[in-house]
Input
Amino acid sequence: MADLDSLDIPTLQNMEVIRKLQGILNKLTCDNAAKLTQEVDCLVIDNEELLTRVAHLFFDNAVCGTVYVVEYANLCQHMCQIRVPRDNPMEGKKKEVSFRKTILTLCQTHFEADNKDHQTMYSEYTTLMAQVAENEKKSDEDRDTTLNVKVANLGEQLLKAKIRTIGNIKFIGELYKLRILTEPIMHECIVKLLTKYDNDTLECLCNLLQSVGKELDHEKAKKRMNEYINRIKEIISSPQKMGFEKKPLETRVRFMLEELVHRRACGWAPRNKVEGPKRISEVHADASQEQLQRQAETNAAPFGGRHNKQDNRPGGGRGRGSMGRENDGWIAPQRTSRVNVDGEKLKSASVKLQMQQGSDMQLGPGG
Output
């Protein structure tokens, strides 16, 4: 398989195909996967250089941490039928190159190289952190101000590499479910992950077995699966004896291993429901259900949603002539009966009172 760096500058026609494919992959979801598959069929991929660029573009998008890894795997299965003639056919090699062979070679290459690259970057990161600790002891004038920037940049590279590695593992698992990869290859991947004792590799192992463990755990492979689980139990119980002297087993990874053992014991059923991306119709259905539930709660609660339960404490009722207590503890005044007042009678009584007060009024002392 040709590497991207060894390829010539793409032609305008090839660049147009790559641009269209990138637009299709940017829009890929579980709702429009069928429609976008038809758009991929309309792309003209007719030479080895273009096929190589298409495979690299597809792989980069599939392993970048997307939640639509299942949709990418299904689209990959559809594209596996693409075959083009070799640009420079050689004796002893097939005259055609397929998308299936190209994409699987990319998966294998990155699976074998990711761990080495990660170990190299992690060793460099550890060295930089030690230099930063020594740098903090120096005075402000002698400190190297570029070390913190180097640590931040390398940390970001490590994070991207980890996301890409786990994405590749998930993509490989989905390809196996579609029988694009064979079972012996999956066992080979598991053995390699299980014999490298570091936290990131074990996390990849957990992701792979959570994806394909149920399919691999059939009657003929029970013995091998038992060996895998027993080795995992040994790592959980005695991590120091299994190669975790310098770097301890992370608690998060330990929980992932324990969850894996629990799944196998329960027929690979997850402890908690794992929800993937939802279709738009499912989102609308959930929103409607939530709205109906809120409406039902509002209708069931009197006085604008406030539950006015009867107070069972002594004196807590709203009897006649007593003070009532609301649920929030405030004293509510007792309502009294409404009295109708005749305005004319009230006006007449007021005039009589003023006349009476006027007749008794004196301007000086009495005598």
